[in-house]
Amino acid sequence: MKKMIAYCGLDCEKCDAYLATINDDNALREKTAKLWAEMNNAPILPEHINCLGCRADGVKTYYCESLCGVRQCALKKGVETCGDCPELETCPTVGEIISNVPEVLENLKGTNRADK
């Protein structure tokens, strides 16, 4: 599995925070901060939109680093992604993401492939 698949199965390479970071795109940071602030009813500012990927070394958004329950659970269990967890099919935490973005299940089921 490629390193840019998050613990939950989302593809970090498609995330606006990642794209804004690697392209140093302040307009995308502003757009993403505004959208995420509205979606989460939280004070998210453009300077908060910096991330190199959930499982990669380097900077992460505050949410991903500190608040994401999926990431915290995976780190605690010591799994590469939720795809390595025996509770994947019954987990309500990652289940919500899977129900909203079905392709993450395919990303997670690819965890044990040789192209990690």
Keywords:
116 residues, mainly alpha, 6 helices
Q: Helical segment tally?
A: 6
* Total number of strands: 0
Q: Report the major sheet.
A: none
Roughly how much helix do the residues carry, as a percent range?
40-55%
Distance between the termini: 4 Å
Strand content of the residues, in percent?
A: under 5%
What would you report as the Rg, rounded to the nearest angstrom? Answer: 14 Å
In quaternary terms, these chains amount to single chain
User: What is the structural class?
Assistant: mainly alpha
Poorly predicted spans: 112-116
Query: Kindly state the mean pLDDT as a whole number?
Result: 89
Total count of domains: 1
Q: Output the helix-strand order.
A: HHHHHH
